[in-house]
Design brief:
alpha/beta, L,D-transpeptidase catalytic domain-like, 9-stranded mixed sheet, globular
């Protein structure tokens, strides 16, 4: 059961997108700047042992997508949120997804006491929730439709009442995992974001966002019916 949720409708929309619904923040798409900034520090290692050059490769552009995804400006992400394999002791079966909103991480449980850890953004104050769910369906470049409650709070999104087609400006991004309970959609998702500065912060209305490159990795390894646990914040 999901607990402590409020206004779950906004779980399908990044709060930063809501503030700029009239247009796209082009800063997030400066692919060249992202690459050059990282390569200029190629000899530097992060506190987690990954060089910025390695991070720039991991989070490089994804040109073969339906909507080509730009490189991440890794200088705008705290290195502790870069994807990595970590020790994680749990009784949950491999493949289970565990969201830790307190520390801004998403874990995919692997074999032998390990997990793949991704940095994430989570719900802002008043929109945090916890509980067990499962992946009820998946979407690539999904259409986003703001719920009526969001339209009431944020009239600027009313123009998308009939749905916003997939694309880089769509708040669901390249991949979406829709969270369900007892056969019903909870209105919460795990989604892809191209905003590196959102990682490690509470900016959404309940959803959990991963960098697009991380989300594609998680999406490709997550079948429908996968168990999802959201820990208390």
């Amino acid at each position: 059961m999901i607990r402590n949720g409020r206004n779950a409708d906004a779980g399908t929309m990044d709060a930063r997108f809501a503030r700029r619904a009239g247009g796209l923040d082009r800063r997030a798409f400066l692919v060249g700047a992202a690459g050059l900034g990282a390569l200029g520090l190629a000899g530097c290692a992060t506190s987690d042992g990954m060089s910025l050059a390695e991070a720039a490769k991991l989070y490089g552009p994804v040109p073969d997508e339906k909507f080509p995804i730009p490189a991440v400006d890794v200088s705008k992400v705290d290195p502790k949120y870069f994807r990595r394999t970590v020790r994680y002791e749990t009784k949950e079966t491999p493949g289970t997804i565990i969201v830790d909103p307190k520390n801004y991480y998403v874990y995919r449980i692997e074999d032998e006491g390990h997990a793949t850890r991704y940095g994430a953004n989570v719900g802002r104050s008043g929109f945090l929730w916890s509980g067990d769910a499962y992946v009820g369906r998946k979407g690539e470049w999904a259409t986003w439709t703001p719920p009526k409650e969001m339209i009431q709070r944020q009239p600027e999104v009313a123009k998308y009442a009939r749905g916003m087609p997939g694309g880089l400006e769509n708040p669901l991004g390249a991949r979406t995992l829709y969270l369900y309970q007892n056969g019903a959609y909870t209105l919460y998702t795990i989604y892809a974001t191209i905003d590196p500065e959102s990682i490690g912060s509470g900016v959404t209305s309940g959803c959990v966002g991963l960098l697009s490159q991380d989300m594609i990795d998680l999406y490709n390894r997550t079948p429908v019916k996968t168990k999802v646990i959201v820990l208390p914040a």
